[in-house]
């Protein structure tokens, strides 16, 4: 009993209060720096919503509450002290209510489309579907990588990375195949430098082509180079299965009524029809009289005339080809030990072959990083990732789910799908974006302000104009204009609103008012009263 009383008295002492306040101040300073350099989400995960910071706030509350109890029953000369400490207690209670019952989310509005779900800005969930199961699993609220080790049927959730960047890694093929090679090139001139990784392997995350401004890159099988280089005809036909070039003597060229080229080839005693402007693959006419592309065909037809007006670079692993408009000829060149760089005919560019593999393919593997913020945007650590292990027929394989790309895997019992989504809540009403408007700073391309014109539907409809310092307030919710973005598929502008609900706000306001009044009385009026009494004596 005595030990408990000593603990209670220690907690109620000024020394303990000073220690806790200093620790609280250190936390705030540390959190401010973390938010400035690493972003608000990292600061919340690492500092503001950490167990340590919550414990410090709880001890502050206990210290203030205990100090108040020790000064009961009520004494007139401590009226300012009671008011001040009541204000502090109300501030803590209000903050606690806001943390547990408040809403700090966002909503993305599409033009003329009702929106009703608000999304948490920091809490993520995994949505997992299989032929027999469907589950939504919350991800750990952590600032560092976290082991999960949760198994659901064939699926095991291994490791969650709340902040990650991707690094290039090379993975061995099941079997070497020269038509499935992969390469990394360095394209450079005096003003520009870019690494480009390309792959023909179907399991790779890298494509077989890229666009760099006006320059288009096309990555093709290495065996195609000699065919491309030696063939002088406009059309080049290639058998990707046999790695063989098909003689142009087998071609018959004609024009369709719409003006498109139609090429017929009697290769391997079978007639194939190509329409180069439609596809490099052969086509056939279905029973419904429609053109259908033969997706499984190994044949490819290339119309070289279509690549002569603009810069196009064909890459064949260790060889390249391009059309030189000065000589009006196709040029083929090869990398070797003595020729590290190949000069290109555009803006002083040079090309270097950094890596070339016929038995490996490139993938991007997430690695945990501490995020870095610049101009309120993450320039490092902007990706969330989850390592997933799947056991199918006794074989276990690892896959990475990334926040910007759903994961689909076909197994022996059907299709498995995984994707991240923000934790959401459904509003009791709908918002529809009627119009979005952004204004630029004069003489620049920098956004100065943006505003949304919305329709609110809740039985009746009402029109609202949301812009900076003019939020929409409805049913205890406040909607602030915060951002906008382009829909990459449709090109439409989407308006982003921050949604806020703070049920503890009135307690915090009342606590702040009492804190000011109590401090003024305790440190100003009380001293004056004591001073006047002393003079009168």
Describe the structure.
There is one protein chain. With 537 residues, the chain is of the alpha+beta class. The protein folds into 3 domains: 2-102 and 504-536, no CATH class; 104-119 and 424-501, no CATH class; 174-358, no CATH class. The chain is 23% helix and 46% strand. The strands form 8 sheets. Strands 1, 2, 3, 28, 29, 30, 31, 32, 33 and 34 form a 10-stranded antiparallel β-sheet that branches. Strands 4, 5, 23, 26 and 27 form a 5-stranded antiparallel β-sheet that branches. A 5-stranded mixed β-sheet has the order 8-9-18-19-20, covered by helices on one side. Helix 2 runs antiparallel to helix 3.
Q: Averaging pLDDT over every residue, what do you get? A: 85
Shape, principal axes of CA atoms: elongated
Major sheet: 10 strands, antiparallel
By DSSP, the count of extended strands is 34
Look at the helices and sheets and give the structural class: alpha+beta
Number of helical regions: 7
List the helices and strands and how they pair.
Blueprint (H helix, E strand, L loop, with lengths): L1 H11 L1 H25 L1 H9 L2 H19 L9 H23 L1 E7 L5 E15 L4 E5 L7 E7 L2 E18 L9 E7 L4 E7 L9 E4 L2 E5 L4 H7 L4 E5 L4 E3 L4 E5 L5 E7 L2 E5 L8 E3 L5 E3 L5 E5 L8 E4 L3 E6 L4 E6 L6 E3 L6 E8 L2 E9 L3 E3 L2 E4 L2 E10 L2 E8 L4 E5 L2 E27 L6 E12 L1 E7 L5 E3 L2 E10 L6 E9 L3 H32 L1
Parallel strand pairs: 9-18
Antiparallel strand pairs: 1-2, 1-34, 2-3, 2-29, 4-5, 5-23, 5-26, 6-7, 6-22, 8-9, 10-11, 10-17, 12-13, 13-14, 15-16, 18-19, 19-20, 21-22, 24-25, 26-27, 28-29, 29-30, 30-31, 32-33, 33-34
Helix pairs in contact: 1-4, 2-3, 2-4, 4-5, 5-7
């Amino acid at each position: 009993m005595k030990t408990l009383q000593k603990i209670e008295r220690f907690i109620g002492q000024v020394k303990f209060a000073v220690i806790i306040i200093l620790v609280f101040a250190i936390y705030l300073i540390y959190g401010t720096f973390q938010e400035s350099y690493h972003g608000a989400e990292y600061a919340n995960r690492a500092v503001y919503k950490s167990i340590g910071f919550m414990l410090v706030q709880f001890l502050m509350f206990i210290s203030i509450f205990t100090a108040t109890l020790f000064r009961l029953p009520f004494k007139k000369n401590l009226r300012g002290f009671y008011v001040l400490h009541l204000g502090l207690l109300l501030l803590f209670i209000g903050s606690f209510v806001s943390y547990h019952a408040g809403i700090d989310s966002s909503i993305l509005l599409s033009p003329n489309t009702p929106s009703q779900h608000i999304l948490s800005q920091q809490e993520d969930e995994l949505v997992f579907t299989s032929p027999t199961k469907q589950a939504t699993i919350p991800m750990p609220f952590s600032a560092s990588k976290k082991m999960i080790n949760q198994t659901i049927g064939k699926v095991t959730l291994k490791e969650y990375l709340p902040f990650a960047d991707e690094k290039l890694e090379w993975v061995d093929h099941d079997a070497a195949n020269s038509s499935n090679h992969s390469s990394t090139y360095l394209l450079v001139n005096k003003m520009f430098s870019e690494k480009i990784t390309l792959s023909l392997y179907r399991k790779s995350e890298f494509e077989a082509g890229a666009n760099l401004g006006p320059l288009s890159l096309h990555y093709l099988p290495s065996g195609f180079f000699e065919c491309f280089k030696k063939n002088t005809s406009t059309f080049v036909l290639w058998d990707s299965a046999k790695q063989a070039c098909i003689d142009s003597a087998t071609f018959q060229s004609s024009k369709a009524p719409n003006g498109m080229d139609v090429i017929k080839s009697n290769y391997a005693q079978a007639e194939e029809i190509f329409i180069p402007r439609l596809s490099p693959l052969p086509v056939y006419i279905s029973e419904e009289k429609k053109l259908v592309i033969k997706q499984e065909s190994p044949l490819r037809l290339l119309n070289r005339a279509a690549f002569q007006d603009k810069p196009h670079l064909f890459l064949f692993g260790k060889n390249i080809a391009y059309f030189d408009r000065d000589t009006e000829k196709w040029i083929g060149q090869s990398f070797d030990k003595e020729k590290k760089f190949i000069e290109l005919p555009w803006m002083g560019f040079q090309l270097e072959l950094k890596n070339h593999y016929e038995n490996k393919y490139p993938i991007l593997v997430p690695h945990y990083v501490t995020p870095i913020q610049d101009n309120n945007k993450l320039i490092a650590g902007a990706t969330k990732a989850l390592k997933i292990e799947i056991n199918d027929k006794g074989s276990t394989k690892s896959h990475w789910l990334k926040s910007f790309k759903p994961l689909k895997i076909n197994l022996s019992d059907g299709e498995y799908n995984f994707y991240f989504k923000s934790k959401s809540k459904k509003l009791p009403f709908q918002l529809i974006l009627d119009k979005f408007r952004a204004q630029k700073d004069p003489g620049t391309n920098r956004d100065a302000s943006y505003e949304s014109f919305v329709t609110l539907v809740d039985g009746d409809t009402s029109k609202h104009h949301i812009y900076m310092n003019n939020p929409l307030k409805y049913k205890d919710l406040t909607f602030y204009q915060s951002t906008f973005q382009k829909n990459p598929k449709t090109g439409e502008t989407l308006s982003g609103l921050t949604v806020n609900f703070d049920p503890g706000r009135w307690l915090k306001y009342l606590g702040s008012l009492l804190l000011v009044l109590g401090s003024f009385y305790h440190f100003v009026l009380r001293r004056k009263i004591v001073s006047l009494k002393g003079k009168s004596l």
